[in-house]
Here is the input.
Amino acid sequence: MAGATEIIDSIKKIVNNWTNTQVPIMEDIYAGERTIEIKNTGRFQVGDEIMIRDPIVGGELGNTVEEIVDDTHLTLTIDLQKNWTVDQNAIVQKTYEQQMIAGIYTGEPDNIPQFPAITILATSRDSEWLTIDSTTEDFRIDVSVYNKAAAQEKGYRANIKLTDSIIFGLKKNIYPLIAPYIAVAALTDISTGDLFVKVESTEGFEAPGRVIIEDEWKQAELVMIEVVDDTTIKLTSPPGYNFDLEDNPLVIFCERFIYNSWPASTSFGEVFKGSLLKAAKISWFAHEELIWLYPPRETHLH
Here is the structure.
């Protein structure tokens, strides 16, 4: 029976995607410009602090997203001071008071080597009957943010910004992808008008069912209405993004179903972990329905 470990792995992926966000630029950027083109803007919000960096020039810190123009364009609050090129693999990355995420940990280590850091800890699991053959499994997970308290205001502000990014990401993923699932590569580009999707294999896919199309920068959750043949599925509605084959998109058939999740509450304060730290704790819950199929000779346990 699948349990909390897979949920922790899913939350860790979501937290990393929405806090350690790194997206390549798609057009060269020149000093004095403020509107830039990137691979996808889906994981950015107005007010996000960002840096632009590459392996050669270094980094340019201290800018903020002023406007999400469209799916691929951002406008910043400050004119850029340097030139950035696609050939040099320049990226846009989220920062928090000019700091990047230093680590995301499963569990609750006593000592954390670098900051800011995030921990993900399962705190409880409860179960109760939902129908005659199914139960609701209630999972509770704490996502905590830590930063050094020595820089009083900077650490406090960084924690608030980082906590906001995590909460936003969790709210954008109320039906998180939880293992086990079947993931296969797309065989062709997938466009915003497509209802038929070509994949490597439809073995194990069952319609109707929930599918997710994703690449490194974006994700679309959809309903599959038909398995057409060994390499084709039909959707009830088209995806909201284009998925290009060069970005190695996956089509994922979900076998577990989280039907409700939410970052229900957040608390702020200080803790001692080798040194005094600024801390924030997000309490997240998820509800999953499990179907119990008993053999004919086995008594129902209710």
Notes: The CA atoms of residues 116 and 147 lie 5 Å apart.
